Amino acid sequence: MKFAVVANPNKFEVKAVLEAMIKWAEQNEVSLLVSEKTCTLTGVQSPTVIEETDSDETAIKQSDIVVVIGGDGTILYTARISSRSAKPILGVNAGRLGFMTDTKAEDLNNALDAVKSGNYTIDKRHFLKAVDNNGNEFFALNEYLFTRKDSTSMINITAEYDGSLINTYWADGLIVSSSTGSTAYNLSSGGPIVVPGSGVMLVTPINPHTLTTRPLVVRSDKILKVKVEKQESDVSFSYDGVNCRIETLPLEVEITTSDLAFNLIKLPGQNYFETLRNKLMWGKDSRRN
């Protein structure tokens, strides 16, 4: 059995987790496919179990299971490079919050045992698909972001849904989020938390000038069109943190759900609401020990 390991080698915590995984692999006759870059930057070595590859993409293609070590940023990177592979992916937290890296480092061995024995289910997280007016396609697991660039002035952004006008927002920007991305930038901007797999998109303005302008939840199987006209302030468009070059204005982007899915491994006992309680410290009282 072959496990691809995708990690952020610049994170201090990654090396210890990777070393623990090597030890487990040696005891369980499992091969680890790790990129040369990750091996070099972390300094890990194990001729018996590590097969070095020229890239993370190659490691994923040659593997049976993908293990991501890091935070949600590493998960999003893995989602971009593996969107068409449909490989099961286990997230191991070596970052901060990590809503999709649900396995703690101290639980690594038990998690790997469960995966090796097939004792898990798949939590399908569908990508959103965006197509701009030049025909370019962008797939996002978390969100699309339209925001002001190099300016303190607000921008105008128009949103239409299923052919009907929603609003022309006067704000610092607009987030179009999937349910998976509801706990990311959307949450920081006052948007709601939505259970993954709900089949919706969230339209969340960033610091709107009108106080009554609130986040909106719409079905993701219909088209949401976002328009940005030429204006005084420059505008930035990005997906999952990747900036896109805007060739011309006006910019028009049509967003809907995609058939592509990210196959996140869900282990026995893992629960989305327990994750929320743990990550967001719901029910915790800092006044009590």
Structural features, described:
The chain has seven helices and 17 strands. The mean pLDDT is 91. A hairpin with a 2-residue loop joins strand 15 and strand 16 (242-244). It is of the alpha+beta class. The protein has helices at 12-28, 36-42, 56-61, 72-81, 108-116, 185-188, 272-280, and strands at 2-7, 31-35, 50-53, 65-70, 89-93, 121-132, 137-140, 143-149, 155-161, 164-171, 173-178, 200-206, 216-219, 224-228, 234-239, 242-244, 251-266. Helix content is 21%, strand content 38%.
Index terms:
289 residues, alpha+beta, Rossmann fold, Tumour Suppressor Smad4, 2 domains, six-stranded antiparallel beta sheet, 7 helices, 17 strands
Structure, briefly:
Helices cover 21% and strands 38% of the residues.
Overall tally of domains:
2
Oligomer: single chain
CATH architecture of the largest domain: 3-Layer(aba) Sandwich
How much helicity do the residues have? 10-25%
Q: Look at the structure and give the CATH class of the largest domain.
A: Alpha Beta
Number of beta-strand segments: 17
Q: Can you summarize the main beta sheet?
A: 6 strands, antiparallel
Q: If helices are DSSP runs of H or I spanning 4 or more residues, what is the number of helices?
A: 7
Percent strand equals 35-45%
Q: What is the name of the CATH superfamily of the largest domain?
A: Probable inorganic polyphosphate/atp-NAD kinase, domain 1
Give the rounded overall mean pLDDT.
91
Order of helices and strands: EHEHEHEHEHEEEEEEHEEEEEEH
Radius of gyration: 21 Å
- CATH topology-level fold name of the largest domain: Rossmann fold
Strand order of the largest sheet: 7-6-17-14-9-10
